[in-house]
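Lecture 7 notes: from sequence to structure.

We start with a single chain of 660 residues. Read the sequence below before looking at the structure.
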Amino acid sequence: MNRFPSSLLAGLSLVVATIGSARETAPDWLNAAAAARAVAPTKEDTAAVVLFHEGVVKVGRDGAFATRLRFALRVLTGDGRKQALARVPYLLGSGEVKSLKAWLIKPSGEVVTYAKRNTTDAAIHTSALELYGEQRMKLISAHDDAQPGAIFGFEAEVTEKTILTQRLWRFQDRLPVERSSFSIQLPAGWKLEAHVFNHEPVAPVVQGASQTWTLTGLAATTPEPMGPPPDALVPWLAVDLHPPTGAVGGGDQLTFKSWEAIAAYFSPRYDTAAQVDAGIKSRAVELVANAATPWDRIRALCRYAQQVNYISIQLDAANAGGMIPRPAARVLQCNYGDCKDKTTLLRALLASQGVTAWPLIVTAGGRKEIHENWPSPLQFNHCILAISVDQSVEVPATITHPTLGRLVIFDPTNEFTPAGLLADERLASRGLLLAGSHSSLVTLPEMNPENNRLDRRLTARLDALGNIAGTVHEEFFGQASAGARAERYRDGKAGFQKRIERWLAATLPAVRTTRVETSDAFAEAHFTHDADFEAFGYGKMMRDQLLVFKPVLVSRRNSTPLRKGPRTQPVVLSSSRYTERAEIELPAGYALDENIAPVALETSFGRYTAQANLDGGRLVFERALDLRAAEIPPADYERVRAFFEKIIQSEQSPVVLRRL
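Now the structure, written as tokens:
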């Protein structure tokens, strides 16, 4: 039998022993973050806390960016396990994640290392309707291993080449943050300007060619009812980089020093995309064939653009391709496009009919301030249209430009809002009009309560056992009609009926809906629905003599309770008007014993009235609420809360009937 030499066996034993005793270790920066003293305020239910978040950017002479990211987080609760996730975005073709590695330090001290075999490469879609885009993300998840008390961290190296020289850094999302910093190192001759938003000014620490901005002890940004969106609360940094004249690669990069410079770059590209050809002319003639007036022609073309399929394909993002529309003729041929494509198609259709219009880039998805002192296309995420009209067109969504005159603001992406109304009340208040030499920031029109109105009428019959049956009829006008219309068509007939049933069930016990019908006058911005209902035991018998019920049969829509306690965020109100008249036939043999007290509340931001009167054998209950757009500071929160609290209290007041 052949035998291994004893010296070789001894060597193998040493190797086996070494492998058996090897342990995974975390990098020093992650251990240091885990050991640092806590400074960020946390609550008992806080899911996790960010211990350390760092971005270090080195700018090459050709304008390329090399970024190192480091991130550390402590898991505090079971819900916090989902936060143990590394997410590193990049642009396909112009960017690359050179390396990504993650670690988990368990409460026992054991370290788990995650590397290439644990990495997923996934597409990032800005919406469910984006067909293809170059934005991608590399991911490492430690969800399954993370437990309360664990430390998760990752480090990544990313390279990118883009013509945009503006960098953004979010110091925080919603979680509390112990320390967040951003550093940038510039080549010789380059300069920068920095702006910090949603926070006091932060002076950078300068070390040679590197500048670093740091924030510590950031409390969680917990959403508060009727508050602003998170983007309006968390601190972030914007850095403008300026290469020297004649720098290698610098001639291809965009440095915007003014809003006019942004418009000068994008306006001709939008103009080129909106060129009119024979196909555009022919389609426009068909669409306006039955239009009687110039405004009718505009509305017909707007309606067509709304019905073009919304599909997004994002290409050439490193060269601002995601901000430049495809040619209108191509959009017409394909019958799909994103917001800027649909806007460009409509602009070309209008031009073929002699109507001038200009693109208007805006911010949608939440009320958000546009920072005038930082000219950047990165502040915007949506494109709509400003259409030139004469004085005969009187619609709410109109502004007057100092040189271009009367303009109707219209969003061809929103298929539920007719021309003449602003499609999304969550738009930021200002947008950038791309109109060549007339380009400028413009203020969008404000909706008044009358243009966002709901009128409700109820007729019902209450019997001696407290059962009630009746019909609720709702009419939505203006912006309110768009919201109701969206609910109806997105949910479908059956889904919309279930929505109505859930709404009625909030105030009517054991309710049954026997009929739900809708009617839509789209062009007039008018939507109605009727629902027949019956509910058992709504009124309550007391001592066999009294029948008690609330005249508020159904709840107000979109009512949000405001609780007592400290407030850190402003209260954001939108303009709206609500009226209700309920006629309730009372059971025979009963008389009104106790009525509700009339209510009249008046503030700078709203007005509410409510009263109930006896009219023959019917109780007629009426209420109305008018709100005006406002952003009320936290110091005045109690005044707002008290206003809505009094409304809720009045709407809980019962009526008492006595048996004769």
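The two ends are 115 Å apart (CA to CA). Keep this in mind for problem set 3.
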